[in-house]
Amino acid sequence: MSIFRSKNSRFRRGPISFRYILLMSFILFVILLVQGLWIVNSSIQPTLLKYGEVETHKMATAIMTKAVKDRINEGFDVDSLMKVQNDKNGKVSTINLNTKQVNEIVTSTTTYIEKYLQQVEQGDLKGLGISEKNGATMAVPFGRVTDNALLGNIGPDIPIDFTTIGHVNTDIKQKIEPHGINTTAIQIVMEMEVTLQVIIPFHTKEITVKQDVPIATRIVQGEVPTYYGSGSVVVPDKKKTDS
Question: Is 0.70 topped by the overall pTM?
């Protein structure tokens, strides 16, 4: 009997230790936490990224507009920006842009844009008309990305940053539009384009922001046509003219 009891004693187990229960509970908690964070991240990431795109686009547009305004405030001669050529009768025949002055304006405006973009990336928003929040470039309350009106401003702020990719592209173009009877409006437009990378937690996306800002307009008056009707030149009927 003593031999039989000794064999059974090998299969006896005492109660599970508290440390073992605590360890298993901690491991289960970590697994559930990671799974929960993954589910939450997958559900809010599209909304958060879309919000980041919109805010980054607004920020970049404001920066480019401010850069153009600051360059215009430095002053430039509109008449010297456009080269006007007249025909033998003294009428305006062609209007071309002054390449030298155009290049100077483009270069200085591009410098402004790059300066302001770098300023925003570093979190220094003074002078740009954009409030700084918690030292981040942009931030959105966690509750807002849940699309729940009751939770709109609840929760910690999620940072949204961006960084410039490549160079800022700036150019000046002419837009010619009719402006009344035989009158033409020539508009000088600054075309700007910058590629940015939106950065949110665990994800990034590249976007391109374009902005056109008029910087000057000139009205050119030509000869009034012999026949005019309803905003277009009317060619007279030959038969009626001959009769």
Answer: no
Per-domain residue ranges for the chain?
19-236
Quickly list DSSP for the chain: -HHHHHHHGGG---PPPHHHHHHHHHHHHHHHHHHHHHHHHHHHHHHHHHHHHHHHHHHHHHHHHHHHHHHHHH---HHHHEEEEE-TTS-EEEEEE-HHHHHHHHHHHHHHHHHHHHHHHTT--TTTT---BTTBSEEEEGGGGGT-GGGTT-SPEEEEEEEEEEEEEEEEEEEEEE-STTEEEEEEEEEEEEEEEEEETTEEEEEEEEEEEEEEEEEEE-PPPSSEETTEE-PPPHHHHH-
Token digits for 196?
């940015």
Q: Which residues of 123-158 are buried (b: 16+ CB within 10 A; e: fewer)?
A: eebeeeebeeeeeebbebebbbbbeeeeeeeeeeeb
Q: What is the mean pLDDT of the chain?
A: 74
Residues ≥6 apart with Cβ < 8 Å to 84: 92, 94, 95
Q: What is the pLDDT of residues 119-151, one digit of tens each?
A: 888 777 776 665 554 334 567 777 666 666 666
Residue with tokens 């483009």: 106
- Can you say whether residue 150 is alpha, beta or left, with left for phi > 0 and alpha for psi between -120 and 50 degrees? alpha
